[in-house]
Every structure is written in structure tokens, then in C-alpha cells.
Amino acid sequence: MVQGVVVTSFVALSSASKEALKTATLLKTLNVNSLITGEVGVGKKTLAQYILPNALIIDASKFDELLTSLQSVNQIIITNLHNSPNLNTLVKEIKSHNIRVIATSKNYIEDEILDELFSIKFDIPPLSQRVEDIEALIEIFSTEASELFGVSGEFKMNDFIPNLMTNSHSLKRQVMINYLLQDIQDFELMEITKNYLFDKLGSNNDYRDFLYLYEAPLLKSGLKRFKSQLKLSDILGLNRNTLRKKIADNQKYL
User: Fold this and answer.
1) 61 backbone dihedrals φ, ψ, rounded to 5°
2) Confidence of residue 6 (pLDDT cuts 50, 70, 90)
3) I need a surface site. Which of 78, 156, 215, 222 has the fewest CB within 10 A?
């Protein structure tokens, strides 16, 4: 059971995320504007919603919609502030209507008008710097996957290397795919391969070019399981020279 967060879905087990949650909790009690920065998938929007749970949420790139909305709200969450086409106009409208704002941005924007607008600014570090949060997120995502796919059993962590390229976004996708593959049937795997190849076929070299989709996983799993090229060559019914050539041809995938 994941501990540390009860009032929000923001996972706060690392010291950095605990500090971010502490700041967000303080902001719930203050009537001030705040800018939350950080990479994609670190939890900026989640904390913004924790601070202003009933606020309208609009991406800064939807400029006309955003300006229209400012006419009828007293608080708002503006995501991806770095995508705003006109910060001066936006800030002017926010100030003229005395609206409370919690905004998010992938990085800090050096701008005097933003320094005046946002009383509090804080950054959420990437998951690579919040190691304690990763295991908790994997547990959350695997539970979601189990319910979504109707699959029982624990998530297999053997050889699982978290994909943190886009933080929680890439990690969730990875867990979902891996959880599904744990119980996948052969006809489902063939259907996935068929769909993958459908739009890619069209040249005279397709058989050779896509053979790695079959050979690479077969060789990789065989080498891992039997730990011997000699034994694998016997299992696959290939002579050792043929196996060595296939391993060399697929080396970048193994």
C-alpha cells in the first residue's frame, strides 16, 4: 500500500516531492498566485488541481479561449504557460479581473511581469531525482493496469528498467504495455504485429527488413533462458555458424 499521500494523487515519498507537496498545501490556505515548473509528467497539473480543485483548467496555447474564460472566473489553472503567444496581454487581463492563478510551465520564464504576478514559484524535479517515488508509481500504474485489462497477479519486475523519458507519462505507458504482455496470447501478439506492419509494407525487401521482428525476440529470449549458444542452436535446430550469423545480424536488438 502506497503511503505518504492521502489528500492528493501526487506521490510524495522522496524529499523533493514532499517539499513540493508541502508548498502546495501552504498555497491552499493563501490567496496568492503561483507558478509550478518542471518537465513533462512530473506532477505539475496534479498539484495545481490540488491547490485549486474547483478551478477551470486551460492550456496557455488556447489563447482566445483563455482570454474569454478570464471574463467569467475568479480562479483558474493555466497549463503550459511557456506556450502562451502573448504573456503581456494575458497578465494584464488576469490583473484587471483580479483572478487567482496557478500556472504550470516546463521551465522558469525570465520575465519581469511574471515575477510581479507570481508570488510563489517552485520546481518539481524529474523522477530520475525522486527515486523513492518511482516504485510507488509503478505500484499505482500496475493496479490500474490490472483493473483495466482484467488480469490478476503481481507485476513482474524482472529486468524491468523504468522508462523516465517523460517521467510518469512514459513510466505509465511502459507499465501498461508490460502488464498486458505478461498475459498476452499468441493470436493477440500476431494481431499486434499485423497492425504494426500493415502500413509499413510496400517494398521488395520487406521480408528481409522485418525479419528481425521475429528473430530478435526469439534469439534474445533463447540466449537469456539457455545461456548457451550451443544449446540454443540445438533447441532451434540451427547449426552454430547459422546461429552466430543471426545473432550478429540482430546484435543491435539483443
Assistant:
1) -70, -20
2) very low
3) 156
Task: Establish if 8 belongs to a structural domain.
Answer: no
DSSP-assigned beta bridge partners for residue 34: 102, 120
Least confidently predicted of 153-162, 165-174, 235-244: 153-162
Q: What is the CATH number of the domain that holds 116?
A: 3.40.50.300
Read off the pTM: 0.78
Contact at 8 Å (CB) between 37 and 104?
yes
d(CA 207, CA 90): 55
Domain shared by 136 and 194, yes or no = no
Residue 159 predicted with pLDDT over 80: no
| Residues 45 and 99 placed together within one structural domain of the fold | yes
Distance CA 85, CA 178 (A): 39
* Backbone angles phi and psi of 77, in degrees to 5: -110, 120
What DSSP string runs through 211-242?
A: THHHHHHHHHHHHHHH--HHHHHHHHT--HHH
Residues 6+ apart with CB under 8 A from 36: 44, 47, 48, 102, 103, 104, 105, 121, 122, 123, 124
pLDDT tens, residue by residue, 101-146: 999 999 888 888 899 999 999 999 999 999 999 999 998 998 888 8
pLDDT of residue 185: 84
Residues 119 and 199 in one domain: no
* Counted domains in the chain: 3
Q: Grade residue 5 by pLDDT with cuts at 50, 70 and 90.
A: very low
Question: Do residues 216 and 250 touch, judged by C-beta distance below 8 A?
Answer: yes
